[in-house]
Amino acid sequence: MTASTAQRYRVADLLRVMARLRDPATGCPWDIRQDFRSIVPSTLEECYELAQAIEHEDFPHVAEELGDVLFQVVFYAQMGSERGLFTFDAIVDTLVTKLLRRHPHVFAGGQIEAVVPARSSVESVKESWETIKQAERSAKSQGGVMADVPVALPALPRAQKLQKRAARVNFDWPDASGVLAKLEEEVAELRAAMAGGSQADVEDEMGDILFSAVNLARHLELDAEASLRRASSKFEQRFTAMEASAAAAGKTLHELSAGELDELWEAAKQAPADAS
Known about the structure:
Elements: H1 11-21, H2 29-33, H3 40-55, H4 59-82, H5 88-102, H6 122-139, H7 155-168, H8 176-196, H9 199-219, H10 224-248, H11 258-270
Helix pairs in contact: 1-4, 3-4, 7-9, 8-9, 10-11
């Protein structure tokens, strides 16, 4: 069988593979033991691996990681089916229904092939989107502005989401300059807390600094999580370059003085390979 005629598996095959893996008699012992809670860490890990592949523009790897994320969905669907909670078809039906409801500017009358003749602006779409989502929250008795912001979200994106919600009711700084001034104010308060000697106060003020930094990123139209990942990656690359330079001189970083470490750091920052 040539590559052009090789079998192409479909969603139905994936669902069958998942059912086989969970078969109590002939399935995989590890997969059989899992439950909703136990695979959450794997789900989060797969999403982060996907994000990393996208940031590196490693698109063959992106396709592979998307498959891993899809497998997580299918895994939950199989467990839901086993317990009579929901099925994969129910997941798809709920998703399509939600997309049709949230995009009235695309699907006329909520019909997949019905076209809305007038094009909408991005601004009007954003307003409509939040209005529809607020109606959904109200229908679930979650009428508060901050309702349904997941507590389990990583801290940076959760802070950003809370701030966006507050901005919807005009509780926001008018521009980035005000946020920057607030950040500087929080830094001064941290200095005072450090001088005061209370670790609880220091932690509280440190949190305010981080929250204000996320707010500043939002006003600059930056994603705080992506910005921090970029900064962490840059630091890692430069530190690795420092280690390589020290090794080339027959030394380890532990053997170098503070001044020598600073010299290696500055050299790493100036290296042409540093895309930042």
